[in-house]
Amino acid sequence: MTHFEQAIERVIGGLEKKSLVLNPEEKRTVAYHEAGHAICGWFFKYADPLLKVSIIPRGQGALGYAQYLPKGDVYLMSVNQLMDRMAMALGGRVSEELHFDSVTSGASDDFNKVTRMATAMVTKWGMSTKMGYVYFDDDQQQQFQKPFSEHTAQNIDSEVRRIVDEAVTQCRDLLTEKKHEVGLVAEELLKKEVLGRDDLIRILGKRPFEEDKDFARYFDGGKSAPPPPPTEGGDGPAAPGGAVASRRLLE
Predict the structure, then answer these.
(1) Which of 148, 165, 216, 251 is the right S-S partner for 152, CB 3.0 to 4.6 Å?
(2) Do residues 104 and 96 make contact, with C-beta atoms less than 8 angstroms apart?
(3) What pLDDT score does 220 carry?
């Protein structure tokens, strides 16, 4: 079981970089960044269940990551699920804002994911009342000849900004309310470097939502190993990606 989990971690985050030594200030920042993701994943109803959070450097520039378990096979995503996922992705940066005088460059990959999801909601999935039921391809070969007017482009920009701002507000409201809990998780990360689900239950209590039956059976000992993680890719509802995800820092 341990070897299986280690293999998943290597696929998600890459090899441990034991040669990469962070100074205490950087390590503290990473801990609070990842704690922000963890708290969002724990307390957002439509977020995928959190399995583990780590501040051990891995792979190419990954100073920490949070690992999630998908709720079975998911082929469609609702607005609620997408908003929780975006708010969860922003948890690292918002946590930095709430706990430090200045923020770092560590959230660029999170911003990329959030912007792509919000853009797809507006231009592909018909989730913007203002834009309606439209589909605009993001073919890079047409970057100098868009299939819509400048006015439509401005509307797309404003709707993407609105959705991202709503996700930021959702995230900030939760992390402000749970600021003490963020600190508890971060300080425990600084001591242990890796926290599993049992650690999070000890610190935060059980998630305030009913767990998926397959997820509960696995952690109750009914399964010998978790299902393999899906590959992250694609921006359509049929392949939402990111159910098992690494939050990369300092890309």
Answers:
(1) 148
(2) yes
(3) 55
The residue behind tokens 């999801």 is: 117
DSSP per-residue letters across 138-188 = --GGGTTS-SS-HHHHHHHHHHHHHHHHHHHHHHHHHHHHTHHHHHHHHHH
Starting at the edge strand found earlier in the chain, the sheet holding 50-54 runs 65-68, 50-54, 194-196
Residues across the chain: 251
CA distance 71 to 106: 28
Closest listed residue to residue 88, CA positions, set 149, 174, 24 = 174
**Catalytic residue status for 34:** yes
pLDDT in tens, 154-203: 999 999 999 999 999 999 999 999 999 999 999 999 999 999 999 999 99
pTM, full prediction: 0.80
DSSP string for residues in 67-91: EE---S------HHHHHHHHHHHTH
Helices (H), 15-149: 24-43, 79-89, 91-99, 108-123
